[in-house]
Design goal:
The chain is mainly α and 76 residues long. It contains 2 helices and no strands. It is 86% helix and 0% strand.
């Protein structure tokens, strides 16, 4: 699943964009621009937080199933 294209498009590009915006913020004086940045960053944070939570839950389920299978295999 993690191809170079995936890594570049979905992981590296948003990190690069965040880095650029992070450098702009200390110099920004336009209140509307700052409100836009906050709104945009909030949407991204919410989206990535959902991805993070779903991935963690899925990993927990898989690990639990693996533990059950392993314990079952050990039983005589």
């Amino acid at each position: 699943m993690f191809t170079k294209k995936f890594e570049k498009e979905l992981l590296m590009m948003p990190l690069a964009a965040a880095g650029v915006v992070e450098e702009i913020i200390p110099e920004e004086t336009d209140m509307e621009a700052l409100k836009e940045i906050i709104k945009f960053a909030g949407h991204l944070a919410i989206g990535w937080n959902k991805v993070w939570e779903l991935a963690e839950k899925r990993l927990e389920v898989i690990e639990e199933v693996e533990r059950i299978v392993q314990s079952r295999d050990k039983e005589p």
